[in-house]
Amino acid sequence: MTTLIVNAQVVNENQVQYLDVLIENGHIKKIEKDLQNVQADRVIDAKGLFLMPGVIDDQVHFREPGLTHKANIYTESKAAVAGGVTSFMEMPNTVPNTLTQQLLEDKYQIGANTSLSNYSFFMGASNDNYDEVMRTDPTQVCGIKIFMGSSTGNMLVDAPEVLEKLFANAPCIIATHCEDEPTVKARMAIFKEKYGDDVPYDIHALIRNEEACLKSSTFASSLAHKHGTRLHILHISTGDEVPLFEVGTRSNGKILLANGQPKLVTAEACVHHLWFDAEDYRRLGNDIKCNPAIKAPHHKEKILQAVLDNRIDVIATDHAPHTMEEKAQHYWQAPSGLPLVQHTLNVMLEMSRAGKISIDRVAEKMSHAVADLFDIKGRGYIREGCWADLILVDLNATTQVEKSNLYSKCGWSPFEGTEFHSRITHTFVSGHLVYENGQFDETVKGKRLNFSR
Q1: Which residues lie closer than 8 Å to 36 by C-beta, 6 or more apart?
Q2: Distance (Å, whole) CA 247 – CA 309
Q3: How buried is residue 199: exposed, middle or buried, by Cβ count under 10 Å (0-12/13-18/19+)?
Q4: Where are the beta strands (DSSP E) in 253-412?
Q5: Contact between 157 and 127 (Cβ < 8 Å)
Q6: In this predicted structure, what is the pLDDT of residue 151?
Q7: I want to staple 62 with a disulfide (CB 3.0 to 4.6 A). Which of 52, 58, 76, 190 is the partner?
Q8: Cα–Cα distance between 309 and 311 in angstroms, integer?
Q9: How far apart are CA 414 and CA 339, in angstroms?
């Protein structure tokens, strides 16, 4: 089927302009100012709408296999495409942990059978699976994930000799969760003794504090520079970490330093660290308990400024669902993580509406830069020849977040009750119109991401 999108305001590569886009065989065939005389099987008049490249989320936890009472690849990819996320990269702390090439391929098979969006999966590292990690195919796998701080699934890698070997010999980019485990454990013991079960509202930010993040991120960065390793530090939650990262630019599909050299250490900000702060624990409690923690208000301003300054390169979610029953437990028992993938673009468009970031920078940080950073083939841009991963957005409509319109299996959102001043109306995944105004066409599944490495 050929699809012609006309009268759209196309947001792409630092510009917003009226263009028509022809989709053929899953790819973008033509982009011109007037294609209205071109014959197509389907014509979408996008007057009043913005056409953006599909969001590429480089950090999600879709919980399959082993934790499917919380979520699975089908349900979470459905929430993703409803929110304009056309590709995702999923983390290895499932059950069993993704620590062998066979377990990794098992997840790819699940993705091929059930995912409505394009997909890739990180290979997990542990203290004792070095040989398996070294077998990772960099053209077929998004990266290697190292937990340099324990989180859900407890895949902590803390053996110094293992970290040295991984950083020295990694076959592709390493992505890290950075929190210093001894610092976190020491502070947890202090606060348990001090407060018992009568904990202060912001205790999570006090336990998983700035020191824990900075110490671990600094260590990871030092390993990368020592060994010349491409390192991507996930979910920056403090302004204290910002000076670790150099100002970057994008050029010819690469993330570069100002002097034109490749940027060795890149960073990610997540929407919840830009939207919430520690004062929101009073209202939301465990619903925004996540690792690393949401912290004091001044941190989100510093993180946003680092995004705008190109010290932080991409924006993602760290979508990590748990059931409402799990989250309703006492603080010490409640798991960390929150479901975000359905509203990640709404959050950033709301910030754009408030004048905090332009809509073209949103596209850059959520699509272009992610494709460049991970060397993704043929995605992340609205260009002739690229895969047609596209979304149409109405900035004159609203999205009211309610339990009744959530697609994540866990059935709740920290944004419940929020009205966003944007609505994703159409989502194309590899040229297939999978989502249109609340309706899904699930006849075609997403594709495996490939990488130019």
Answers
A1: 4, 6, 20
A2: 6
A3: middle
A4: 254-257, 265-270, 314-316, 390-394, 399-400
A5: yes
A6: 63
A7: 76
A8: 6
A9: 8
Same domain, 31 and 75: no
Q: Are residues 69 and 43 in the same domain?
A: no
pLDDT along the chain (453 residues), means of 10: 97 97 98 94 98 98 98 98 98 97 98 98 96 98 92 79 97 97 96 96 97 98 98 98 96 92 97 98 98 98 98 98 98 97 98 98 98 98 98 98 98 98 98 98 98 97
Q: What is the CA radius of gyration of the chain?
A: 21
188: which 2 tokens? 């947890």
Torsion 263-117-397-31 (CA) sign: positive
Short-list 174, 152, 163, CA closest to 66: 152
42, 58: one domain? no
CA 351/CA 80 separation, integer angstroms: 20
Q: At 217, phi and psi to the nearest 5?
A: -65, -40
Q: Which amino acid is at 58?
A: D
Q: Are residues 149 and 22 both part of a single domain?
A: no
**356 and 424 fall within a common domain:** no
- CATH number for 407: 2.30.40.10
Q: Which domain holds residue 80?
A: 54-374
Per-residue HEC secondary structure of 19-85 comes to: EEEEEECCEEEEEECCCCCCCCCEEEECCCCEEEECEEEEEECCCCCCCCCCCCHHHHHHHHHHCCE
- Report yes or no on whether pTM surpasses 0.90: yes
User: Same structural domain for residues 156 and 229?
Assistant: yes
> Token match 């056309």: residue?
86
Q: What are phi and psi of 57, to 5 degrees?
A: -95, 115
Residues 6 or more apart from 11 whose CB is under 8 A from it? Answer: 50, 51, 52, 53, 359, 360, 362, 363
Bridge partner residues of 266 (DSSP): 232
Q: In this predicted structure, what is the pLDDT of residue 358? A: 98
Structure tokens at 37: 């005389």
When divided into structural domains, the chain yields a total of 2
Confirm whether 153 is domain-assigned.
Answer: yes
CA atoms of 232 and 336, how far apart (whole Å):
22
- What is the pLDDT, as a whole number, of residue 258? 86
